[in-house]
Automatic annotation (TrEMBL):
Protein name, as recorded: Small-conductance mechanosensitive channel
Record keywords: Membrane, Transmembrane, Transmembrane helix
Superkingdom as given in the UniProt entry: Bacteria
UniProt keyword Transmembrane present: yes
Transmembrane segments: 15-40
């Protein structure tokens, strides 16, 4: 496993995890926005 990690470009690995972090942030923002819209809609 460690030999495989030594051959992988660190920059590519870093971009992959930053992309995952960005996708997770977008998903969290979407869910929180949906929850807020439903909360305000339920008050009317």
């Amino acid at each position: 496993m460690l030999e495989f990690l030594a051959n992988v470009d660190v920059f590519a690995l870093e971009m992959f995890f930053i992309g995952l972090l960005g996708l997770a942030g977008l998903a969290i923002a979407f869910v929180s926005g949906t929850v807020l819209v439903n909360l305000f809609r339920g008050q009317k």
